[in-house]
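Methods — Computational structure assignment.
A single polypeptide chain was analysed. Its primary sequence is given first, followed by the predicted tertiary structure written as structure tokens.
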Amino acid sequence: MQKILDLISDELKKAFKEAGYGEEYGKAAVSNRPDLCDFQCNGAMAAAKAFKKAPIQIANEIVEILKNDPAFESIEAVMPGFINIKAGGKFLADHMTAMKNSEKFGLEKPEKVKTIIIDYGGANVAKPLHVGHLRPAVIGESVKRICKFAGHNVIGDAHLGDWGLQMGEVIEELRLRQPDLPYFDPDFKGEFPKEAPFSISDLEEIYPAASARMKEDADFAVKCHEATVKYQNKERGYAELGAHIISVSKEDLKRNYDNLDVHFELWKGESDADPYVKDMVDAMVKSGLAYESQGALVVDIREEGDKKEYPPCIIRKSDGAAIYETTDLATLVQREQDYKPDMVVYVVDKRQELHFIQVFRTAKKAGIVPADTDLRFIGNGTVNGKDNKPFKTRDGGTLRLEALIKMVDDAVYDRIMESREESPEEAEKTAKIVGLAALKYGDLSNQATKDYIFDTDRFTSFEGNTGPYILYTIVRIKSILNKYRETYGTTGEFSKINVPSGVSEKNLMLKISGFHDMVEMAFRDTAPHVVCRFVYELADAFNGFYHDTKILTEENKEKREGWIALLELTKELLECGIDLLGFSAPERM
């Protein structure tokens, strides 16, 4: 079905065309002065320049044509030439009813279904997830859900870091601790054990110990680099140990991502791109795109119109080693071969912007991806403490993600136990659901690129622009619907929504009518904060309507059932919105 703005614009276009000005001037927008009108058209201002007339004269002509249009409660021209519109009650009610009875609330299917890959994991194997992994995971999962809901084929890739120095560090530290393992014996010809010689808890202790030793022991550091090269060259024992590290780490990473309700279709790593590196580099050398500079192999990425200098993209270091740029480019080769994506979105720390400018430009210049492939970088800001510095533990260390989640869950649990009479078991279950909403909404309600202060008290509040407030509104609607069915003995849903009889009821409908534009904007801009703004404003509009309306005690059956239909639609839209954000609502709070 058409968006409400398009329906209103259609009426305006007809009027502009009838008046002889051309339908291109008939475009409606949501009013930025809701106290004056619901929608606004500025077309008379543009037409005035083209037709050399006073804009107010043109606006008055359009109003005269549309003054009896049933879509409008009122339409008026105001100086210097704006057209202010208030939507008609029946027009709104019919639109609400159509939304309620349509799949996906009447969201139109895209003209072309795109294949979109979202790269939003980026965790390094052998290391636990920490607070820095929160934003890519949460933002990426929401972007994936938005793209899917918009009707596209979307693939989420964890893109694990399994090719770097940490692999050599773990292997060398393991050699010090268990030198008799067969992996370190170059003469060993038998089958290696299927079980890893370490657990995830071992890895979590081994890696930091190895990192600390690297800083203090130069010989150990050299051996770590050598071990990394052997692993990357797929020497038998090293490759097998690397496979164990990846396997054990993946299991733990999946558990942690599951706790965030974050899921990937692919669990590829940098190592999966390695088979594509040689042919890719050889092709760039053969074409003359890549050239040698100070012993390294580089690609010039400068373009006409650049306002600042960009350094060349290094695709092979002077010591012959491949680096992140190399593996990211090779990963694009692999993705193009396997999926031919129309769009690839990277959700990564914003400090990586230069890296992705280099990778994207090189990929286009080298023909790794077609020129029209949308390569998009969503650079996320940092999660900061109240001192406005990156969030740390009390002793100054990096906070583990598990600890952050528990911190929020515990805060929600305490709030529930203070104000409700629930068993500790039930409160704990609810706290996990509400805690996840508090954590994700607290993150996603900010623009991705902006840093934000992690404030547990604010995020877990049941009032204001927070996840718990949205959930509390949904639970309130569920409670009303349950009471209605108990009181009136009905289990069915109601399909017809009434013509609004009050200001708050109409305001709720107007907020609902913005759903299609919200999805379109959130997809176009890959912007979850747009969804947050919609669900908050919708929840606020509902609570205003609820405050003004005696829904359950209304004597007029038709009016009562129309209100229940409106509540059902509101609840479904709020539930859809929070699903796009990556969390759900409990049955009670």
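Note: The chain has 21 helices and 13 strands.
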